Amino acid sequence: MAINKNKIVGFIKIVLLIYASAGIALFYFQDKFLFHPKKLAPGYQFKFDGKFEEMSVPFNEEDTMNLIKFFPENKPSRGVVIYYHGNMNNVEHYAAFTKPFTKNGYEVWMEDYPGFGKSTGEITEKKLYDQAFEVKRMADAKFGTDSIIIYGKSLGTGIAANIASRAKAKILILETPYHSIPSLFSSYAFMYPNEMMSNYKIPTHSFLEDVVYPIIIFHGTKDRVIPLRCAKKLTAALKKSDKFIIVDGATHQDINTKPVYYSTIDSLLK
Fold first, then answer.
1. Is 115 helix (H, G, I), strand (E, B) or coil?
2. How far from chain centre, in Å, is Cα 169?
3. What pLDDT score does 1 carry?
4. Is the pLDDT of residue 160 over 50?
5. Is residue 183 a contact partner of residue 233, using CB atoms and an 8 Å limit?
């Protein structure tokens, strides 16, 4: 059978056009893929179970960081968990995840990133680090190093790792982390030069190399948002004493419901 060269050339052109068009869309809309904030009006009233305090922290002339402090019930604070949340909604979406910590006598301080909740300003990678470090600085003014736990969930794991690489704390806990943003993008679109295309790098693996205190990582075998294979790349940056806990059957959303998670957190805090 004779091969129609014109058809082959035409097919190749279509494939290249689709490749280029998809690549352009991924580049220009990557912020939409990465961040899913839900803004709240300045006068919005939070309603959380238990004791909490809301703070509006001026960051610069244009940006204001909204911070919620969750407190233990009927007991003095033993320390604080600085909780850097994921890429969805705002603090309201993550408030339920504070329970394992507050029940053990720890405060939980949770900021909203720029454009999330009541926090204002445009989001940038540098600003994510700088505002996160400001929360750590505030915690240092109230608590000793041995009473501060840095916690990151999903998107927040890279931010938490950055802070842990620069500041002292008791322990770093990461829930469903990623190796880096380009590496994560490659899990979905391996055919593109993601390192070059990504506006955000957040190299978690590089930050972990500079963390001198214990690191504990939780990741599920059925995580479809940040695949386990992406997180496993972090093991090269871990110390021998660090722990990478693979939670069988856990997805990206339900690790906190698994017995191994609760037992590990309880043992750490007690």
1. coil
2. 18
3. 46
4. yes
5. yes
Render the burial of 12-42: b for 16+ CB within 10 Å, e for the rest. Answer: eeeeeeeeeeeeeebeeebeeebbebeebee
Measure CA of the first residue to CA of the last residue in the chain; give whole Å.
75
How does pLDDT run across 164-180, given as a tens digit for each residue?
999 999 999 999 999 99
Q: Hey, where are the domains in the chain?
A: 35-269
Q: 116: buried, middle or exposed (CB in 10 Å: 19+, 13-18, 0-12)?
A: buried
Return the pLDDT at 16.
59
Task: Copy the structure tokens of residue 144.
Answer: 């000793």
Q: 155-166 vs 125-140: helix axis angle to the nearest 10?
A: 60
Q: How far apart are CA 251 and CA 176, in angstroms?
A: 9
Q: Are 90 and 117 in contact (CB under 8 A)?
A: yes
pLDDT of residue 216: 98
Residue with tokens 């490749």: 19
Q: Are 34 and 200 in contact (CB under 8 A)?
A: yes
**Bridge partners of residue 64, in order along the sequence:** 58
pLDDT of residue 182: 84
pLDDT tens digit string along 38-55?
999 999 999 998 899 999
Whole-angstrom Cα distance, residue 231 to residue 55? 33
pLDDT surpassing 60 at residue 64: yes
What share of the chain has pLDDT > 70, as a percent?
85
Q: Are 11 and 89 in contact (CB under 8 A)?
A: no
Can you list the positions of beta strands (E) in 24-73? 36-37, 52-58, 64-70
Question: Under CATH, which number does the domain 35-269 receive?
Answer: 3.40.50.1820
Closest listed residue to residue 149, CA positions, set 137, 162, 164: 164
**Average pLDDT value over all residues in the chain:** 89
